[in-house]
Write a structure and sequence with these properties.
homodimer; 227 residues; alpha+beta; 2 domains; four-stranded antiparallel beta sheet; Transcriptional regulator, Crp/Fnr family (chains A, B)
């Protein structure tokens, strides 16, 4: 991968203009690393952050007895150390190359200079990170919700059936209890209810839930349809 | 919630120093909103972004036939519009208050001025977002992995049993196939294998998997223990 390609694979730099990327590339330092070579030590000052260009890097803490706890392994195109670097703090753990490879070092002082010279650079980096954060939040929501509407639909259909196929059912337990019953947090349960209401499967009024689309709920309950 | 509290609840501002938060508070504009009041229209220039201080705001697109597709609903302490604002672009959708409430508007031009005056402000915002991104990435990994080690352990124990409780088994299908069999992506399967190897449940050598901790694998398979 070329330097520019490696840089633009990092969320922080994804949204940069070509000339901005070039300025970043100019302050970037290529550093070949041998297997086992240390990049930084726990509690060292974070004078910059790293991107893996070749090979793998492990982040670890050493116990007093010398044993290592590996916290994370980063591969090509992944960055590490940027949080303490931006904060102007210290590294919370150590880093070493797992195998022969190459890392790119971005020095804090130079990054700060580029940001002082061009506020748009900071704005574009903030845009990239905000965008990635939105994307991740959406993924988390989707993953968290995944099976809750299914269980919830089954539960609502069951309640309705027990009351002679009633079109509206009363939630017969508090939302907190129902949430744990369904294996969800209260927040996830509320989100599932809102989503199902937005998509016209149900109508929610306090504890009363009107089943608007029984066939749709059956599809949800069977897992055939997902929200 | 006080203005400073509302501001610091937004990931972008979480890591700011008190004096930096105060400078942000000074450029923030309180805006009471009525039920249904429009905040911005799709394709309007993103001259700032918003934080919900009271009530709820919906983000939506209008179809040519006038129907609304609600994309998202934001509640107290949540921000929206920062990506196009930072990019200097246009809003991809419209926003309106769902109920009577209050929003806080952060104007782009003023934010850019603060960043020009103090590079540390940008660095601290970048630190906050990077930190949140790491947190979210961890959550996604945990959610994605959740059930895969369980299924994988069951599969490995089954393979071993079929070969007379062998201590080492050969994966009898390609990793891509195995992944779909277990309902995972190739990437998730690889991560699950590495995690299980890191924690000494197994040892992986190509397609050969050595079962190092049969009791541990049984706990994983039964769901009693999680990675």
């Amino acid at each position: 991968m070329s330097l520019a390609n490696t840089l633009s694979s990092v969320p922080l730099f994804t949204g940069l203009q070509p000339d901005q990327l070039e300025r970043i590339a100019r302050i970037a330092v290529d550093r070949p690393v041998d297997r086992g070579q240390m990049l930084f030590f726990e509690r060292g000052e974070a004078e910059g952050f790293y991107i893996v260009a070749e090979g793998k890097v492990k982040i670890f803490r050493s116990a007093p007895d010398g044993r290592e706890a590996v916290l994370h392994i980063y591969g090509v195109g992944e960055s590490f150390g940027e949080v303490p670097m931006f904060m102007g703090g210290r590294f919370p753990a150590s880093a070493a190359a797992v195998e022969k490879g190459k890392v790119i070092f971005l020095p804090r002082a130079e990054l700060a200079r580029l940001i002082r010279e061009d506020a748009t650079l900071a704005m574009n980096m903030l845009a990239s990170l905000s965008g990635k954060l939105r994307e991740f939040a959406g993924k988390i929501e989707a993953l968290t919700l995944q099976e809750i509407p299914q269980r919830l639909s089954a539960y609502l259909l069951d309640l309705s059936e027990r009351e002679g196929d009633a079109d509206a059912v009363e939630l017969d337990m508090a939302k907190g209890l129902l949430a744990s019953f369904l294996g969800a947090t209260r927040e996830t349960l509320s989100r599932a209810l809102s989503r199902m209401a937005e998509q016209n499967f149900i109508e929610v009024k306090g504890r009363t839930i009107r089943l608007l689309d029984r066939a749709g709920l059956e599809d949800l309950a069977s897992g055939e349809v997902r929200l």
